[in-house]
Input
Amino acid sequence: MEAPVEPSRRVALTFREHEFEHAQPAPLFAGIVGRWPDVRDEHFVIATIVSELFINALDHGVLGLDSELRSAAQFETFTGIRSAAITRRKGRVKVTVELRAFDAEWEITVAVADSGPGYDAAKLAPTSSEDAFGRGLELVRGLASSFETNAAGNVAIATVRYPRPQSMQSVPYAM
Output
């Protein structure tokens, strides 16, 4: 891929255990992306990706909760275990959103890293539309141009690319 034609815009926030119960990173990042000219219309897509990856990192990475507890029969059990785990578990989740302008396209990268032990992405069982769990990563894959995790399984990176209008190509990006 070619080098960006101008400097990137980058915002990163780290959420720690005392913030988990009330953390809502999606609206924060949607508000920021919504102020970036030419990609502001994509803020809902970015907010959805941030939300899904943050919840995944918190619930499974930091809190170590099993997805299958979200089944309809066990959802109340899941919410009780989650609430209790949030009050006693230590850890962090870092969310980074970066915008880069290339000559012909915009690239927005969402990276979410957690302090948990990670997981083996190859061992994830496919989910069905009837499952009450396991759809978040599928949603992210559907919205993003690319999606990957690191080898340890505690960093998820989704990249969304949009065409840059011809009138903006080779023109410096001003904020």
Observations:
- The chain has a mean pLDDT of 81.
- The radius of gyration is 17 Å.
- DSSP finds four helices and five strands in the chain.
- The first strand starts at residue 9 and ends at 16.
